[in-house]
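Bumping with the actual sequence this time:
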Amino acid sequence: MHVVKIGGSLVSDRERLRAILAACVVEGPVAVVPGGGPFADAVRASQAALGFDDALAHRLALDAMGRMAEIFCSLEPRLTATVRLEDLTRALREGRSIVWDPAALKAGFPEIPESWEVTSDSLALWLASRLGASRCILEKSAPVIATDAAELAAAGVVDAAFPRFAAAFAGEIVVRGPSALGQAA
């Protein structure tokens, strides 16, 4: 069992997005973590225009990930989404792939800062650690030229908190860019 984070920016690459979602079902069990995509971009733009705090922006970005979860399930009808970690764990034990809607995180978790330092990249690692996953794969729309967590964060490929979450994850971390189309989940 592993976790696959699918960047919300992949909405601009419909073919790759559909291929990744299908692979998650066929090669499961996989816990799919959606990025926030254009919905998270709207939160960033609204925060810049209106000046609300990072804690609210974080919670709105979690909602953005939830909307992408719905879209992923619409694009790949064999997937369902869940908010509850218990349902996620059960589906994975049953050998099914499932999409995680992180809405429950809006209640707050001390190990997850409510700021833009934490995005779906770090949340995927948090979930992978919590589930005891053997691998966490991040599917990105940007080319990936580094493999070290600190280098990826410095290059802006992943969020600033990613190195800390990576250090806490015992499994393998794989970050894939567009050239990875066709690789197994």
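The tokens above came from a reply further down the thread. The first strand starts at residue 2 and ends at 6.
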